[in-house]
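Pipeline run #58 for the internal structure catalog. This entry was flagged by the ingest filter as a single-chain record with no existing model, so it goes straight to prediction. Upstream metadata was stripped on purpose; only the residue string is passed forward. Reviewer on rotation: M.T. Logging verbosity set to normal.
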Amino acid sequence: MFEIIQRETVYFWFYFQVLMYQIAPYWIAGILIGSVVSVFGKKKMNSLVDGLRSRNLGILGILPASILGTISPLCMYGTIPIAASCANKGMREDWVAAFMMSSILLNPQLMVYTMALGKTVFIIRIVSCIVMGVLAGFLVYFFYKDKKFFNFSGFSPKDGHDVDPNLLMRLLKNIWRNTKTTGPYFFVGILLTVLFQRYVPKAAFVSLFGSNRSFGVLMAATLGVPLYLCGGGVVPLLRSWLELGMSIGGAAAFMLTGPSTKLTNLAALKSVLGIKNFMLYIIFSLAFASVTGLVCNLFF
């Protein structure tokens, strides 16, 4: 018994170190870049979004609104106040929908994390997030021309964190806060990956996600709902799953349903959408993720 425990401990520690060496640099870089963008780029982002509102682009404004959402460093509780302010100043709701949708899915920190999954997955994630935002904007444009889609009056934003007058201290506090928030999920993700590699037979995983790629996409889209807690935490798992046979389409579906149905995001969204539009949002997220995964599997 002692020899078994010793062997398993050596195995665990060896692969834990290997995974840390492979993925930790992306996690650290993501925290640093995300914090720099958040501290020094937040005002610029606010002005860009507000400047977009003043341009007469018509329906074409959906695309830049979606792109701005993907590069926004704000969490959902920071995005909604900006969207509410722009909507109150007259920004079109289709633009607001595009910005909010893509902002939910991606930010600079997640972009860096995703680099650990390879160039193809990285590009697919960025493109699919922008397209999902654009499609959300088009749907609001075509089906909500004469009625309101959002109701920002019921949203109560949390107090901001980046308020220290000293920029260096503000940056250090932001780095520490991001580390404290994502660190536990990152290490749990590493731990789960090691346990998964050790105790889940490869044949069982391949039969579930690899043999039938279409079914694997639907499974990945569904699993993204309960399993996605933090972008940094799922990267080690996704990297392992891709190595074991998960299709790129399955990974894409998981990365779309995960953040779009993340519990903290849903709580904020329900407060501004109402129950009917909220349910439409859930259906749209699952459907788009599944279709995107199936399309990706046709080409990769």
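catalog note: The radius of gyration is 20 Å.
catalog note: The first helix runs from residue 2 to 53.
status: ready for reviewer M.T.
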